[in-house]
Amino acid sequence: MTPLAGAGLDTINRRIVGCQRCPRLRAYCARIAQEKKREFRAWEYWAKPVPGFGDPRARLLIVGLAPAAHGANRTGRMFTGDSSGAWLYGALHRFGFASAPTSTSRDDGLVLTDCYIAAAARCAPPDNKPTPVELSHCRPYLEAELAALRHMRVVLALGKVAHDAFLKAAGRATRARPRFAHAAEARLADGTMLVSSYHPSRQNTNTRRLTRAMWYRVFRRVRALLRLIG
Q1: How many angstroms from the chain centroid is the CA of residue 98?
Q2: 124 backbone dihedrals φ, ψ, rounded to 5°
Q3: How far is CA 168 from CA 138, 140, 142, 173, 178, in A?
Q4: What is the pLDDT of residues 211-225, one digit of tens each?
């Protein structure tokens, strides 16, 4: 991969969309786009790696796991078109980061303010489980985004895979790195605050491992940290 050092977000996103480094994931995304889900038969699926989305001057970076097969793999925008996205954008709107509480397509007019969304993997993986090699192929994109988001002060990692992916991209892949736990916080050496949360997947929300009250407390804390940091 050609180095992305110093690249802007537009360049990074073009490189993400054109990436072909993981044959298993590219084949899976293409197959899902052909088979489709009955309720989305009329859609032309995006079926490419999904770029980041949000405010280039964001102080808050949200790192997710990967596009959902019939969510972002269909719509082409992170956390758009599935139940996890409904939870995320509802909270972002409630706490002043999003212009609307729902996200349905990449051209629905939604705008993020002071927030940028990325992911550990940029292609939808079978069973939502990218392999370690596939995650390593995506890591340079997250590394480049961290460098390009010069105003970033708080990172919200959604799930352990996202938590670990961020720390590796940030150069904190040591035994002393902060451990994942819901609502855990850690101040990194550069002053960035890392906040972790359970991912708002159906597996967590339907079982009430993650409740709406727990979810909102995380975002309330993120907003408070941004006020403290300034």
Answers
A1: 15
A2: -65, 125
A3: 11, 10, 10, 5, 11
A4: 999 999 999 999 999
Separation between Cα atoms, residue 137 and residue 107, nearest integer Å: 28
CATH of domain 9-229: 3.40.470.10
C-alpha 223: how far from chain center: 18
Alpha helices in 7-49 (DSSP H): 9-17, 23-35
Q: Per residue in 64-96, pLDDT tens?
A: 999 999 999 999 999 999 999 999 999 999 999
In angstroms and rounded to an integer, the radius of gyration of the C-alpha atoms of the chain is 16
Rounded to whole angstroms, the Cα distance separating 70 from 209 reads 23
**Distance in angstroms (rounded) separating the CA atoms of residues 155 and 169:** 12
- Greatest pairwise CA separation for the chain in angstroms: 49
Residue 170, number of CB atoms within 10 A of its CB: 18
pTM score, whole prediction: 0.96
Q: What is the pLDDT of residue 2?
A: 62
Which parts of the chain have pLDDT scores under 50? none
How far apart CA 113 and CA 149 sit, in angstroms, is: 13
CA-based nearest residue to 163, from 138, 180, 139: 180
Sheet with 53-54, strands from edge to edge, namely 53-54, 115-119, 60-64, 154-158, 193-197, 185-187
Q: Render pLDDT for 135-144 as a digit per residue (tens, 0 to 9).
A: 999 999 999 9
Q: 47 CB contacts (<8 Å, ≥6 apart)? A: 29, 30, 32, 33, 73
